[in-house]
Amino acid sequence: MDRVTKLASERAVVVFTASNCGMCHAVTSLLGELGVNAAVYELDKDPRGRDMERELARKLGGRGPPVVPAVFIGGNLVGGTNRVMSLHLAGELVPMLKNAGALWL
């Protein structure tokens, strides 16, 4: 099992970010405001961050940078900023978070 998959399966919501990424901050802030206690991994601060970036790129179909933010809910890759915000605006994010056990209300 690769490191990204292992980390993504350890919590209901996992976000891979970079410390200098504004969109990463927007996504993690949204999740926090919704009451989600996500596990956040800053790839640029992790000694194995480059390897995890390559794993994420493979999971995203070989798409080039940026690969962050990469949001996993219930161990499944949801996507990045556009996908998370689209789900939120469509009213689909909260039910997804509840189903994963990330929200209790």
Task: Write up what this structure looks like.
A four-stranded mixed beta sheet has the order 2-1-3-4, sandwiched between helices. It has helices at about 5-10, 20-35, 50-60, 80-90, 95-100; strands at about 15, 40, 70-75, 75-80. Strand 1 (about 15), helix 2 (about 20-35) and strand 2 form a beta-alpha-beta unit. The protein has five helices and four strands. The chain is of the alpha+beta class. The protein is about 45% helix and about 15% strand.
User: From the alpha-carbon coordinates, what is the Rg to the nearest angstrom?
Assistant: 13 Å
Proportion of residues in β-strands: 15-25%
Main sheet summary: 4 strands, mixed
The number of helical elements comes to 5
Task: Please tally the β strands and state the result.
Answer: 4
Q: Give the helix proportion (percent range).
A: 40-55%
Low-confidence stretches: none
Mean pLDDT: 93
End-to-end Cα distance: 33 Å
Spatial strand sequence of the major β-sheet: 2-1-3-4
What is the ordering of alpha helices and beta strands? HEHEHEEHH
Structural class: alpha+beta
Oligomeric state of shown chains: single chain
Outline type: globular
Q: What brief labels describe this structure?
A:
single chain, 105 residues, alpha+beta, 4-stranded mixed sheet, 5 helices, 43% helix
Briefly summarize what is shown.
The protein has 105 residues and is α+β, with helices and mostly antiparallel strands. It has five helices and four strands.
Task: Reconstruct the topology from this structure.
Elements: H1 3-8, E1 13-17, H2 22-33, E2 39-42, H3 49-59, E3 70-73, E4 76-79, H4 81-89, H5 93-99
Parallel strand pairs: 1-2
Antiparallel strand pairs: 1-3, 3-4
